[in-house]
Automatic annotation (TrEMBL):
It catalyses: L-lysyl(4)-[histone H3] + S-adenosyl-L-methionine = N(6)-methyl-L-lysyl(4)-[histone H3] + S-adenosyl-L-homocysteine + H(+). It comes from Urocolius indicus (Red-faced mousebird). It is found in: Nucleus. Residues 24-45 are annotated as: Disordered. Keywords: Chromatin regulator, Metal-binding, Methyltransferase, Nucleus, Repeat, S-adenosyl-L-methionine, Transcription, Transcription regulation, Transferase, Zinc, Zinc-finger. GO terms for cellular component: MLL3/4 complex. This is [histone H3]-lysine(4) N-methyltransferase. GO terms for molecular function: histone H3K4 monomethyltransferase activity; transcription coactivator activity; zinc ion binding. The gene is Kmt2c. Its main location: nucleus. PANTHER family: HISTONE-LYSINE N-METHYLTRANSFERASE 2C, HL01030P-RELATED.
Length: 400
């Protein structure tokens, strides 16, 4: 028989055949007990664990079955980002790709997992999401303005305003229509009745200078001289910007001087391409935008007199909400009665004004004002013209 070595609490006990024989002799010498009518149960294995004891009755050592751990679930495999983006690009579509970045999941095994537990907040686990918008290159064509207008007309959601009328005002210097670029000829300024000049075209003329208040002086003088001067670039009349070099006769329009690559300086001087220095200059001016208040200085009394003296008027003279129609006239015998210390009352004067209505609080109407003669004295007449009502005529002997 083989010997069995059992370990209990760092004590080794040798169980041999001699011990087994001794135990059997003790059993034979003991008096036999009456057998019970119950069936004999099979003897159970008796285990005794003690220190420094040699009598250990061990009939069989039960073999413990190893617990087989359940098969671990395979990790979830996600496609990489570049594979997720490989989707067939349709021509007029905008693709949106959503990528899920999974967290590393612990795989159950017999070994202890040393990784820290996942972050939790109120019992919920967080997942990281990232959205990637992929716009195909060269395949997506944005709609033009005409297609957008047609689409809005079909929907009926917006009202398209009327197109802005073309600006037919022409500069007297460079002969270009409409306002110019801010970093160029700039906006149009009124010189006289239906006469316009670009701000920089007038400002960079040789004779013109600017006052501290923003008034441009000698614009009319520069315009008269420009009618006889030909531009070196476009060979048209109206050139007023000359080269500052002594005895140089090259003269340009302001816009032509920019095209000819003339050099402008901060002291309002200019050099033609033949006399400009090579390379850059400290005082060179490369930006021509003017955001300050600038206007053309003119004789307004003479201008109004020229408007009044014209027989057939093709233009409308307007001051605020007052539209001027006719100035009228006064005879020598009427001078004494048709004036006051502040104003003249010429017979035949006619003007119209847009003002608040007398019938409605939130509307305006037209008031036609005129001066007539009655019994050698002026008679002031106001005709109220309002849509939906008959004309109302009011008269009095004083303008108030």
């Amino acid at each position: 028989m083989k010997d069995i070595v059992f370990c209990s609490n760092n004590c080794f006990v040798l169980y041999s055949a001699a011990v087994q024989a001794k135990n059997s002799e003790n059993k034979e010498s003991a008096p036999s007990l009456p057998q019970s009518p119950m069936k004999e149960r099979p003897p159970k294995a008796f285990h005794q664990y003690s220190n420094n004891i040699s009598t250990l009755d061990v009939h069989c050592l039960p073999q413990l079955q190893e617990k087989v751990s359940p098969p671990s679930s395979p990790p979830i495999m996600f496609p990489p980002a570049f594979e997720a983006a490989k989707v067939e690009a349709k021509p007029d579509e905008l693709k949106v790709t959503v990528k899920l970045k999974p967290r590393l999941k612990a795989i159950h095994s017999s070994l202890d997992d040393c990784r820290p537990p996942s972050k939790k907040w109120k019992g919920m686990k967080w997942k990281k999401w990232s959205i990637q918008i992929v716009i195909p290159k060269g395949s997506f064509k944005p709609p033009c303005e005409e297609e957008i207008d047609e689409f809005l007309k079909k929907l009926g959601t917006t009202l398209k305003p009327d197109p802005v009328p073309k600006d037919y005002r022409k500069c007297c210097f460079c002969h270009e229509e409409g306002d110019g670029l801010t970093d160029g000829p700039a906006r149009l300024l009124n010189l006289d009745l239906d006469l316009w000049v670009h701000l920089n075209c007038a400002l960079w003329s040789t004779e013109v200078y600017e006052t501290q208040a923003g008034a441009l002086i000698n614009v009319e003088l520069a315009l008269r001289r420009g009618l006889q001067m030909k531009c070196m670039f476009c060979h048209k009349m109206g050139a007023t910007s000359g080269c500052h070099r002594l005895r140089c006769t090259n003269i340009y329009h302001f816009t032509c001087a920019i095209k000819a690559q003339c050099m402008f300086f901060k002291d309002k001087t200019m050099l033609c391409p033949m006399h400009k220095p090579k390379g850059t200059h400290e005082q060179e001016l490369s930006y021509f935008a003017v955001f300050r208040r600038v206007y053309v200085q003119r004789d307004e009394v003479r201008q109004i007199a020229s408007i009044v003296q014209r027989g057939e008027r093709d233009h409308t003279f307007r001051v605020g909400s007052l539209i001027f129609h006719a100035v009228g006239q006064l005879l020598p015998q009427q001078m004494q009665a048709f004036h006051s210390s502040k104003a003249l009352f010429p017979v035949g004067y006619e003007a119209s004004r847009l003002y608040w209505s007398m019938r409605y609080a939130n509307r305006r109407c037209r008031y036609l004002c005129s001066i007539e003669e009655k019994d050698g004295l002026p008679l002031f007449v106001i005709k109220v013209v309002e849509q939906g009502h008959e004309d109302l005529v009011l008269t009095d002997t004083t303008p108030k």
